[in-house]
Fold this protein.
Amino acid sequence: MSRPEDIAADLTRDLLEIGMETAMLAVEAGVVIAYRSGAFCGFRPYVGTETHRMFAEKPPAFFAAALAAGLTALGGQRPDRVMAAALHPIRSETNRNLRRLGGVDPDS
């Protein structure tokens, strides 16, 4: 059986990790918005499909997030793990957009 100190340390680490993931999501989303706004205003190269992509990417990402969170919750996991499961598909999308719009990964 685990000691209370070990459980508290694990929970603290997990909560810090989910906090960092949430902060990274906010930063990535902000930078993606800045890249797209710059393109719409003519300060960056604009690809004609970006407006459509901007709207079309959200329903699948949020559906995947809701599904992951629901399955994790049904599995009896702690709320922080449910949140982590929900953040993963959304973070994947923001990271992919950041890399694509920033010119790091032009093929995606």
